[in-house]
Amino acid sequence: MLTGEYRNTIDEKGRILIPSKVRAALNGDSTLIITRAVENCLWLMTPGYFEKIRQKIMDGDGAMFNSQTRILQRIIIGQAMECEIDKSGRLLIPPQLRTKINIELKQETVLLGISTYMELWSVPSYEQYLSESEALFSQASQDLSNQLYGEGRK
Prior knowledge:
27% strand, 6-stranded antiparallel β-sheet, 8 strands, two-stranded antiparallel sheet, Chemotaxis protein chec, alpha+beta
C-alpha cells in the first residue's frame, strides 16, 4: 500500500527521488504511468492500476460519443506517459506534465501516497489546496462518521 507524504526537490534534469519505502510498496515494478489529475497535481500509478482506470474511461458503449467521457480520455488517457524509475530511485517527470501543474526545476514538491496511486504537487499548490479544502474535509469526515456509525451518532 502506498501511503505517506514525502517532500523532495525536482533536480536540474526534472527528476524526483522516489523514497525507498514507496519503491518497496511497488513490489519491484519500476514503471509508473504519470498523468494529469483532477486537481492541480499529477497522478502516478502502476501500469496495472492505470489499465483499470483506462478501461473504465475507454471501454463503455459509445464512450467516444459522450462529451464528458471524451474530456477524460483526452486529459487522463491522452496525456499519460510511461516513465521508468532509474537504478538510483529517480523518476523523470516529463516537462509537458510539469508545466501543466507549474512545477519548476529545483522546486520542492510533495509526493502523496494514496493507497493505490500517488499524487505529485508543487508545495504552494498543495498548501493552497489544503487550506481551501478544510471545510470540505470537515464535512467529509462527518459524512464518513455517519456511514460508519449510522446517522444517529454525531
